[in-house]
Design goal:
This protein is α+β, with helices and mostly antiparallel strands. It has a domain of 103 residues: 2-Layer Sandwich (Ribosomal Protein S5, domain 2). Helices cover 52% and strands 18% of the residues. Strands 1-2-3-6-4-5 form a six-stranded mixed beta sheet. The protein is elongated and about 125 Å long.
Amino acid sequence: MADKKDKTDEIEKKEKLETKKTENSNKSDKTVAEKGKVEKNEKVSSKTVEKKEKEVKKVVKKDSSKIQFIATGRRKKAIARVRLIADGKGNVIINKTEIDDYFPLETLKLILRQPLALTNTAQKFDIIVNVKGGGLTGQAGAICHGIARALVKSDETLKSDLKKAGLLTRDARKKERKKYGLKKARKAPQFTKGG
């Protein structure tokens, strides 16, 4: 009889342990699922916060307590992304090089500085430019267009002067395509009268 009681006691203990284990595993499964949900919510909320921060940075960037105005300029095949940094000294950096090293001709530098000269803001901003595509003339025109747009973002009162000078209008002229039977877009081969 004592043996039977001992065996039944052991069986009951084993059953209790097994039920406790299953309960604990169910609880751990629930906590893992809840943690997963919390992590997903945190990921979603962090993504939305990052998106909002990016949108704010696009409109007006703040870098080391200086306000930046960003604009894009285009001319021929060239595309220029221009940043005007407020409270600057008039420095112009193009593709991480100084303006004098990037543009060899004074006429190109003159084209680039047109909007600044017109609005008397040459010494108010530092200008950082990333430009790609096209040749030097196209790039100078694209930077000029970008600077004019960025100046309007910085101060709306400058818009009328820049518009009158035609600096806000994107110059739509591009290289005309070559035609069949011609040497270039319009240049014809030399004509000789037969006979």
